[in-house]
Specification:
Number of domains: 2
Shape: globular
Largest sheet: 7 strands, mixed
CATH topology of the largest domain: Phosphoribosyl-aminoimidazole Synthetase, Chain A, domain 2
Structural class: alpha+beta
CATH superfamily of the largest domain: PurM-like C-terminal domain
Order of helices and strands: HEEEHEHEEEHHHEHEHHEHEEEH
Radius of gyration: 19 Å
């Protein structure tokens, strides 16, 4: 059935009973309305040998990444993170020093992004290490961005570059030299909080999502929620110089990493075509670049990939599916 199918079934079972719920299951964060501000809530669970391998991570770096991927969901709504709850399932042989270093990583990210760890839970795990993190954030009333706001003829943009993280994971699995800078993109992703807040505020984009499962998979989520299609120009996908160089050495198709790899944690967003005309000018003081990669179309057109030579290819391949690939379903 896959992740999307499971989530749809859960949405029908879990009924919201509060009028304060503005967005429930199915987006990057749940949104709960309050008098002056909206509350954002998101959670992620990481399981050893499913989402991470301790051969690649020291505990401190793992703790930092676990928080970063949650912060990325807050960024995708344009919000500000405030509070962190952390639950751990710890195998019995685990040393206390390991847990302390893991928490140092959690606290490093909390301090960096000015939020506070306020509680959680610790239980025994019979096998793998499990990390479950919930982050509570806020945003101005009704200023949040969802996946459901894209309109026909909106322009599609992304922050940063794509594909480095997936390529880095392949290097790690192949036990290739880890001095390559590309490795950092997988081990230490940067949540685009400042960028998300700017896009939700001054820029005024129409829909947004963070790229956790690959460009195509996450674009499909926007199309599903916004009831639209999309056209993506493959020659416009931003790929780093280091990834292009790696592709030449390994004879791998780096575009596949960018389209289907996942864990980039960049922001994919749409913006009205009229507003898009001067977006680069408004963005010029930001360190993270943004790149135009396509446009929203009517739903009946589906997602079309346009090659450099103009050849059009209807989407046949999806991105990473948590459930089919790793038994992981994220419902917000």
């Amino acid at each position: 059935m896959g992740e999307f199918g499971i989530i749809e079934k859960l949405r029908h079972i879990a009924k919201g009973r509060s009028k304060k719920i503005k967005i429930g299951i199915g987006d990057d964060c749940a949104v709960i309305g309050n008098s002056e501000l909206d509350t954002l809530a998101t959670t992620d669970t990481l399981i050893e040998n499913v989402h991470f391998n301790l051969r690649y991570f020291c505990p401190k770096t793992l703790g930092e990444k676990a928080v970063a991927v949650n912060l990325s969901d807050i960024a995708a709504m344009g919000g500000v993170p405030l509070y962190i709850l952390i639950s751990l399932g710890i195998p019995a042989p685990t040393q206390v020093e390991f847990v302390e270093e893991l928490y140092e990583g959690f606290e490093n990210m909390a301090k960096k992004y000015n939020c506070s760890i306020i509680g959680g839970d610790i239980v025994k795990s019979n096998s793998a290490l499990m990390i479950s993190i919930t982050i509570i954030g806020e945003i101005k009333k009704n200023a949040f961005l969802s996946r459901a706001g894209a309109k026909n003829k909106d322009k599609i943009f992304i922050t940063g570059v794509l594909g480095d993280s997936a390529a880095a994971l392949d290097l790690l699995k192949e036990a290739r030299p880890t001095k390559n800078k590309i490795i950092e993109k997988h081990l230490s992703p940067t949540p685009r909080l400042e960028e998300g807040q700017r896009l939700a505020g001054e820029i005024g984009v129409s829909a947004m999502i963070d790229l956790s499962d690959g460009l195509i998979s996450d674009l499909q989520r926007i199309c599903d929620e916004s009831q639209c299609g999309a056209r993506v120009y493959l020659d416009k996908i931003p790929i780093s110089i280091r990834l292009r160089e790696l592709g030449k050495l390994s004879n791998k198709n780096v575009l596949d990493y960018a389209l289907y790899g996942g864990e980039d944690y960049e922001l994919l967003f749409t913006i009205n075509e009229n507003r898009s005309n001067n977006i680069q000018k408004k963005w010029q003081n930001m360190k993270t670049p943004i790149t135009y990669i396509g446009e929203i179309e009517k739903k009946r057109n589906g997602i079309t990939l346009v090659h450099r030579d103009g050849k059009e290819e209807p989407l046949a391949k999806s991105g990473y599916d948590h459930f089919l690939n790793s038994a992981d379903i994220k419902i917000n």
